[in-house]
Amino acid sequence: MHNVILSVSTFAVYAVLAMFFWRANIRGQGEALSRGLAGHLVLIPLALHGYLLADDVFAGGGFNLSMTNALSMIIWLTLAVYWLARFFYPIGGLQALVLPLAAVIVLLPEFFPTAHQLENTGLFAFKAHISAAMLAYSLFTIAMLHAVLISMVENRLHHAMMPRVLQSLPPLMTMETLLFRMIGFGFVLLTLTLASGVVFSEQIFGKALEFNHKVLFGFISWGVFAVLLWGHHFYGWRGRIAVRWTVSGFVFLLLAYLGSKFVMEVLLHR
To answer: Which of 2, 168, 183, 248 is the most exposed place for a label (fewest CB within 10 A)?
Structure first.
């Protein structure tokens, strides 16, 4: 009951901040708001969310990385990356996109609890594998959001009027630069995730590597992002091409991990 009350409270703070950020973006003041008091207030629900996440994941002395906990961790890391990145890039107003998601997802582990206890969690290889995987998912989530926004802005450039929400975004070139930086960092982390899973499979999972749909989609996603980075570096791919490849890579990444968890935990109840 204690965690339910705390989850609802965290949801409420996220929701209020999301409302403020959305209104500020509509007025073209999203970036200014993020650099003021409201930007620092994001730390309050982030801290509460982090506490709830740690309590759910490490419940009973184990490591419960269920689908709802994994989603919660990815969104928490995504918002934390956005909060830190705003000190270096003009993207503070983009937190308005993540705050509503965080508000909803923070409730999932409490109201839809599922257990997926993992073994060998004390090993360094396991910790490195999970850390790289979660960070990679978070960075690619941000890249996906940026790709969608870039597509929306490019489509609206052909119209006389652009919505005020889109007008408050950073310049298109800045968005594309950030997109490829996020993809580059995420690609390195995804490479480490796949490599550690292959090399240390027995230590991490207690069995030899199995070539299943999770592994297949993981490597397909890695290949998609590798081709995108190669095309951008040698042929200057950007715009709609970059958006399509980013969305494709992200979809395969979702199928590789969260897709398999959804089937096993929600549909098959395993």
So the answer is: 2
Please name which of 195, 238, 199, 245 lies closest in space to residue 221, comparing C-alpha atoms. Answer: 245
pTM listed for this prediction: 0.81
Contact at 8 Å (CB) between 54 and 111? no
How big is the chain, counted in residues? Answer: 270
Does residue 249 sit in the same domain as residue 190?
A: yes
Condensed to tens digits (0 to 9), the pLDDT of residues 13-41 reads: 999 999 988 888 777 776 777 777 777 88
Statement to judge: residues 135 and 66 lie in one domain: no
Last residue of a domain, one of 89, 117, 145: 117
User: What end-to-end distance do the CA atoms of the chain give, in Å?
Assistant: 25
For residue 202, give every residue at least 6 positions away whose Cβ sits within 8 Å of its Cβ, in sequence order, or none: 208
Angle between helices 2-26 and 95-105 (to 10 degrees): 160
